[in-house]
Specification:
This protein is an alpha/beta fold. It is built from 7 helices and 16 strands. A hairpin with a 5-residue loop joins strand 15 and strand 16. Belongs to the transferase hexapeptide repeat family.
Length: about 300
Amino acid sequence: MDKATNKLVDSILETYEGDSGINFIDVTNLPVKSKIVEIFDMLMEIAFPGYTGKRRIARDSIRYTVGDIVCRVRHELAEQIERALKHKCRLKPCPGCDCHEMAVKITEELLNQLPNLREVLKGDVQAAYDGDPAAESFEEIVISYPFIHAITAHRIAHELYVRDVPLIPRMISENAHSKTGIDIHPGARIGRNFFIDHGTGVVIGETTEIGENVKIYQGVTLGAISFPKDERGEIIRGQKRHPTLEDDVTIYAEATILGAVTIGKGAVIGGNVWIKKSVEPGKTIAMKSTKVLERGPGGKSDKQ
């Protein structure tokens, strides 16, 4: 390297000294992002066989195809989970734990959940079909609706989240977020027959709880009001800070619901409202009607 390049490299290396968490020199136990995406794509193939067209799925060979995917996921996911667990141990040592054994166990638990996850996802597809008159078929929904990618990612990531797998649940959810514009934290608990129409700009926070048969539209935020801090001024983690939506709730576009409030069963939240208090079951919350100003050809104004 020439003198100028050497000087520049020295300057860059100086910025690495003392860093924690933003460089990974000498670290070989982090999950690999491209591998996580690849594993998720394989799980999507199990959930919706043939949807990508990458594999030809035929009834006479489907057992072989699914078996092949399961074997690959079993090996590759266990390896990535082991990396994540070892990274956690590196940050907070846990003498006596066996990261390999734990990774194998968690992987098997996830694989054993796949039949149930498929049934839940079928309900989500049905909810999308029932909730969108523009949908002409289940195939259209599975192949083209960003919601399906987002909710599949969430339901898989959530299974790993509840088993205390570090890093990987967020990697799965943020990959889906980047592709769909739908941001669902893997900690959120979401019931059956869920549907997000359009989807772009939806944010669902970590401690959100959503019941069954819930429908929300684009731009909805289920967020926190503020982050409580301890006596040292550090954020207190793990507390309930996001909304609960009971069964049969509908939330229209751009509504914002903040804090550990409850939206009661069957309630309807209109578009663009801002809510920080609980809503009783069956109630409708909407903005007061605005007046529309129209100007005729001669410039005369009419208020409606």
